[in-house]
Specification:
mainly alpha; Arc Repressor Mutant, subunit A; 6 helices; 62% helix; homodimer; DNA-binding; 139 residues; globular
Chain lengths: 139, 139
DNA sequence: TATTGTTATACTCTATAACTATA
DNA sequence: TATAGTTATAGAGTATAACAATA
């Protein structure tokens, strides 16, 4: 029996977590990617679209579409940056904050379910190991 | 500092390994997905396209395209199953076996590089933990 | 009737290039 | 000249539906 490749395992682990997270967020009308953007924008320091894109490792044109979608749902708002009018400051609306509060609980539960076959120690170790494997975003 | 989400870590770990594996395989004219199919088909038991698709967790229509590509490169060959003519038995050609031999070494090296920031023990533990998180293919 | 392979088609996610406005 | 946001567009990768051949 040939052991499964690391690439297969990572891909399918990712698929499973995406599925669990997506199902957990469905009642709130957002998916895992939108949750990630919303959670990132819930930050004390004002964040431009480009800042957010770099932090999440996605293209700035992709970020345009994601902010569009969140704005249509009244979860974030764009306003011009006071000091540099090329930039948009993007921030959660009141509704965005509320949604984020409940969505965080749902995503935490989804992660917990995903990790439920592991001991607490192994779950923590998985996270630590992945942290070491994935370099922090540049900039 | 908000800690990075498990979904982010898994996605970007996957991206990094895909990149390393792709670069390692480029000299042999295949990518990581084609390698996975080729390695799976290098099996003592004859395997149909549907068998292979189920094992890799991809759609059977996707498998058609992958086998097409590998056949164009003279790395696999289709022949009718002797006992059930609805099925194709797909098997590596001589050239496929040779390519697989060198490609395996390249992929092993890419995985090693991917894991190079970890101790041997942590690398092994990562693999074990992922094995437990990813259910074996049904069927 | 059900299964295997195939084709046509469409959808999602993403990136590249070019444009606008600001700096 | 360079940067932030936007638009148009195209490329992967994937899946669904319908068909042909076979069971």
């Amino acid at each position: 029996m040939s052991r499964r490749r690391l690439g297969y395992l990572l891909k399918h682990a990712n698929l499973r977590l995406t599925e669990l997270t997506g199902a957990a967020l469905e009642p709130y009308g957002i998916d895992g990617r939108e949750f990630a953007v919303l959670a990132l924008l819930d930050s004390p320091a004002p964040m431009s679209q480009l800042d957010a894109a770099r932090r999440l490792g996605i293209d700035r044109t992709t970020m345009v579409a994601m902010v569009d979608a969140l704005e249509r749902k009244d979860l974030v708002r764009r306003r011009p940056h006071p000091d540099d009018r090329r930039k948009n400051v993007v921030e959660p609306t009141e509704r965005g904050h509320e949604t984020l509060g409940v969505a965080r609980i749902a995503v935490d539960a989804a992660e917990e379910e995903f990790l439920s076959s592991l001991s607490g120690g192994d779950a923590g170790l998985l996270r630590d190991v992945l942290e070491r494997l994935v370099p922090p975003p540049a900039g």
